[in-house]
Amino acid sequence: MQYIFANWKMYLNATESLALATTLAPTTLSSDVECAVFPSMLSFCDVEKTFRGSSVVTGVQDVFWVSKGAYTGAVSAQMAKDAGAKYALIGHSERRHIFGEKDTDLSKKIQACDEVGLVPVLCIGETKEDLDSDKRQYRLKRQLQESLEGKNFALPLMVAYEPVWAISGGDGSRACLPADAEDVIGWIKQELKNFSAESIPVLYGGSVTEVNAKEYLNMPSIDGLLIGSASTRVESFTSILEILS
Ligand code: PGA
Question: What does the pLDDT read at residue 168?
């Protein structure tokens, strides 16, 4: 199975999200491709309805771990599941670095996803500072350990490797070349064996476009892509889906 996940972040308002979903809904995908769209919370319900019965599924960009209560501004894993989400991004770099999420929070979010039957997509990635000070593996190992340790890994889980320095819109000054991403993802897969006997799909994300997507998808360890800004441009995103058709 190859995964093409579209993280619309806060790029599109409700009208724009619905228009893009309406354009994408008739897309036919091969049975070994899973395409999921992660719209903003505000547009989630409309987008989910638009994709119902199509080949595209939906996910949310974040969840809170308590199912219900006095938590202003939060949306729980249970609520996302009830609204039709299949996946939840957990610990996206922007959640960690802008909103201050800690690995210990992510551990609770993964647990909450498991309890309601949402598939968590744990996002990990080192900063440019980590990279420059030779701390890439150290950072990734810690992120995995602190959010996964003690879990019962019969549960479904996915991981997205997104080097912070390669994400567009951040300090995205450099690309993580496909061969580099392949090496790191191969190493992450070895590390994941410490947590689960199951094979856990690992996606790559960070400045993927229609120009470079094929090179990442051709790499044997990379199970798919988590795409941000290019997934909000209809021509770019459909060109990426066409690579796998
Ligand atoms: P980008 O974002 O494709 O715009 O670099 C990827 C992500 O942050 O998920």
Answer: 86
Choose the catalytic residue: 34, 94, 126, 162: 162
Question: What's the whole-model pTM score?
Answer: 0.96
Residues 27, 29, 32, CA angle at the centre, nearest 5°? 165
For the beta carbon of residue 70, count every other beta carbon within 10 angstroms: 6
Distance CA 67, CA 86 (A): 16
Distance of alpha carbon 122 from alpha carbon 110, whole angstroms: 8
SS3 at position 90: strand
The residue nearest atom 6 of ligand 1, judged by CA position, is: 228
Asked if residue 180 lies in contact with residue 209, where contact means CB atoms within 8 angstroms, the answer is no
Q: What pLDDT does residue 59 have? A: 98
State the residue for tokens 């991004």: 89
Q: 124 and 90 in contact (C-beta within 8 Å)? A: no
**In sequence order, what E strands does 16-102 have?**
33-38, 56-60, 87-90
